[in-house]
Amino acid sequence: MLDSGDVKHEAVHVSIVKGEHKTPEILKINPTGSIPFITVDDVPYFESAAILRYLAVRCPEINKFYPKGQDETRARIDAALDWNGTSFRNESKYFAPIIMTKFIKKAPSAELQATTDARIAKLPGLFTFFNKALEEGGTKFIAGNDMSIADFQIYCQMTDVNMTGTRSMIDTYPHVSKWYDNVTQYKGVKEIHEGEAYTKLYGMV
Predict the structure, then answer these.
(1) Which one of 62, 104, 119, 140 is most buried, by most CB atoms within 10 A?
(2) DSSP state letters, 22-42
(3) Which residues partner with 44 through β-bridges?
């Protein structure tokens, strides 16, 4: 999001595979050891939805992603963030282990594959809901014809789904598929998700 808005910042890439988010240096800054997190004037902030809201309010360049004075738009954004946090992420968060096996070109264990398949089996209900919401919204992105903080966050979860090899499932839902492609082409998004930050996260650089 910061790259999309040309907001100056320093990005620090850590590998969860190597446990770099739990090093003494990181824990001194952020005792929770969670990622993502940011620091502003040496104060740490964590939880992705809270970070997105904070940055979009604080930085004039990206105010449009959580527009002030547009209560209805913000309500749609907040609803999408809540849905992601309570529903979609509850399934997609389990995909990280099998994604790691793809990066290191190692076959997943039967147990891991079974766990992943069970989670994937729950996606159609979530995708049906999201597809219907996008259809009824009638806009290019979740809350309008420009990106929002909800688009940035949910796209990250959807990318994990894509990485499991189930892009064909995304394409089964036309409004979800179109939204996914629209976000992918948005300034800064593709560069981040195909660049060093993403591979670093899974321990490949």
Answers:
(1) 62
(2) GSHHHHHH-TT--SSEEEETT
(3) 39
**Amino acid identity for residue 184 in this structure:** T
The residue type found at 167 is R
Residues with Cβ within 8 Å of 94's Cβ and at least 6 positions away in sequence, in order, are: 115, 116, 119
Place of tokens 């004039």: 60
pLDDT tens-digit profile of 177-205? Answer: 999 999 999 998 987 776 555 554 444 43
66: alpha, beta or left? (left if phi > 0; alpha if psi -120 to 50): beta
Closest-CA residue to 100 (of 13, 199, 168): 199
What predicted TM-score, i.e. pTM, was given to this entire model? 0.86
As a whole number of angstroms, the distance between CA 134 and CA 142 comes to: 6
d(CA 71, CA 178): 26
